[in-house]
Design the sequence.
């Protein structure tokens, strides 16, 4: 190898070294730090909360059909606002419709029989008035009793029709409140029952439809650990602030509603009924006005700080 070739290789090595120093010495702008929630109170009590719709009981409305059958139509969509009585879905009611039609035919038959017996009674009465010997007193009494019995038969047929018609109305699931559809758990062709619907992911029976009220207020149910319960103020008013995960540098003031004075197992967030826990929590309910610039939905987990004792 000649001296010239060695010189060229050495120069290339020097240039490569200078370039690597320039490239790797460049300052990289660090990413913004992750925002975390902060305790706005000197002695704040932390609790995890779950957002719910604003109801007198502080819970979403779980709707179950009162009859079983295949879902034949779904009228309401998730996020749609419904008024009380609006249809949500229908189940297969073909058999029940036939029963109602049969009851209607039975009413017509019983009414026709009643008319026939009334006419027979009227003839017997007129005949008895013209000639008492033409109709016996026993035959006249039997005709009167037959009309009374037939009137009761018509009444029974009408009641049977009303009962089957009322049951037919149950095959249309209607909104029990003025509110928003939070979740529709069934689709066309699914099977609905009073037990709910089977969820293949959780392997549990869930409500067919969930509804709630999200305007003007929403509620948050927070769970205070039993260890922290003694540090809660004894007053009837609690001051608290909520932080939405992902927007943890902005607190949302909460308005106290009530304390549910019964500690429950801490399985509300995991929803695992078979979970073994040795910690109990105290449910505390607050309400808040939903900010226009932050997306908050029922079922969302949030961080809550409650002002503790001084």
Sequence:
């Amino acid at each position: 190898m000649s001296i010239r070739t060695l010189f060229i290789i050495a120069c290339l090595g020097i240039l490569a070294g200078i370039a690597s120093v320039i490239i790797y010495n460049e300052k990289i702008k660090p990413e913004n730090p992750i925002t975390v929630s902060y305790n706005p109170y000197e002695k704040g009590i932390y609790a995890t909360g779950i957002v719910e719709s604003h109801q007198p009981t502080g819970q979403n409305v779980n709707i179950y059909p009162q009859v079983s059958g295949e879902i034949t139509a779904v009228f309401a969509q998730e996020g749609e606002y419904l008024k009380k009585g609006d249809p949500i879905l229908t189940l297969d009611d073909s058999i029940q419709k036939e029963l109602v039609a049969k009851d209607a035919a039975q009413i017509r038959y019983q009414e026709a029989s009643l008319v026939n017996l009334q006419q027979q009674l009227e003839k017997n009465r007129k005949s008895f008035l013209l000639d008492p010997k033409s109709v016996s007193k026993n035959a006249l009494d039997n005709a009167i009793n037959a009309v009374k019995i037939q009137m009761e038969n018509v009444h029974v047929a009408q009641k049977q029709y009303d009962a089957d018609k009322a049951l037919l109305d149950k095959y249309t699931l209607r909104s029990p409140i003025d509110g928003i559809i939070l979740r529709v758990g069934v689709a066309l062709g699914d099977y609905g029952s009073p037990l709910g619907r089977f969820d293949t992911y959780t392997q549990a029976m869930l409500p067919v439809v969930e509804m709630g009220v999200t305007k003007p207020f929403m509620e948050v149910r927070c769970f205070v650990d039993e260890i922290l319960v003694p540090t809660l103020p004894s007053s009837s008013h609690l001051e608290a602030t909520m932080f939405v995960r992902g927007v943890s540098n902005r607190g949302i003031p909460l308005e106290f509603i009530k304390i549910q004075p019964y500690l429950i197992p801490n399985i509300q967030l995991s929803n695992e009924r078979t979970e073994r826990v040795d910690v109990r929590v105290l449910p505390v309910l607050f309400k808040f006005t939903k900010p226009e610039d932050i997306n908050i939905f029922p079922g969302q987990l949030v961080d809550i700080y409650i002002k503790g004792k001084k």
Remarks:
- The radius of gyration is 37 Å.
- The chain has three helices and 17 strands.
- The chain has a mean pLDDT of 84.
